[in-house]
Design a protein that fits this description.
Blueprint (H helix, E strand, L loop, with lengths): L6 E5 L2 E5 L1 E3 L3 H6 L3 H13 L4 E5 L23 H5 L9 H17 L2 E7 L11 H21 L4 E7 L2 H4 L1 H8 L4 H5 L1
Parallel strand pairs: 3-4, 4-5, 5-6
Antiparallel strand pairs: 1-2
Helix pairs in contact: 4-5
Length: about 190
């Protein structure tokens, strides 16, 4: 659903009115190298007056999955096995780097702004990924994005570190209901 409630954001020192929407599957275009599909989606949204897409880094085409696909649905954006064992990444993976580079390039080419959510599903992992380890994923992503901003100075990218942490995380459910198993908590 689109709204006409336009907000202003400061982009590169310029106050810019934005009309945004979540685009849950956008990064899947980049994941699979479908740049034409990504450009078509950007163009479609720009025709509607949308100039900011909220996108999720841990995304694939979600057919057959709930909205966010929980537990984590991509094991190659981050090495989930290593994360679950407490390994703290020292850089982004090759796939993650390529997707982010394409995101910055598309933003610079098209003028579309993006709100990039780093942790969409890591907080759902079972067994849980330690909070500090997720923080390292966020830090590595931000460090890599800083380099990309220098390479693509016209790219308009904002970062959200976690998607609705309190609403969706295992820890929040456990604190609210005493059990991280949502099925039991809701019954």
């Amino acid at each position: 659903m689109l709204t006409t409630d336009v907000k202003n954001v400061l982009f590169n020192g310029v106050v810019t009115p934005i009309l945004g929407r979540s685009s849950f599957k956008f990064m899947a275009h980049l994941r699979y190298g479908n740049l034409d599909g990504a450009k078509n989606w950007i163009e479609h949204n720009q025709k509607l007056g949308v100039n900011l897409l909220r996108v999720f880094g841990e995304t694939q085409y979600w057919e057959g999955h709930p909205m966010f696909g929980s537990p984590p649905i991509l094991s190659d954006v981050w090495d989930y096995g290593a994360l679950e064992n407490g390994h703290r990444p020292t850089e982004v993976t090759g796939l993650n780097a390529r997707m982010l580079r394409d995101l910055f390039s598309l933003s610079a080419q098209t003028g579309m702004a993006f709100e990039y959510v780093v942790d969409a599903t890591m907080k759902h992992a079972d067994p849980p990924i330690p909070w500090g380890t997720i923080g390292h994923c966020v830090r590595q992503t931000l460090s890599f994005m800083r380099k990309l901003q220098q390479e693509f100075p016209k790219a308009l990218i904002m970062v959200s570190t976690h998607n609705e942490w309190d609403a969706h995380s295992r820890g929040a459910w456990e604190a609210d209901y005493g059990d991280a198993d949502r099925t039991k908590a809701l019954n």
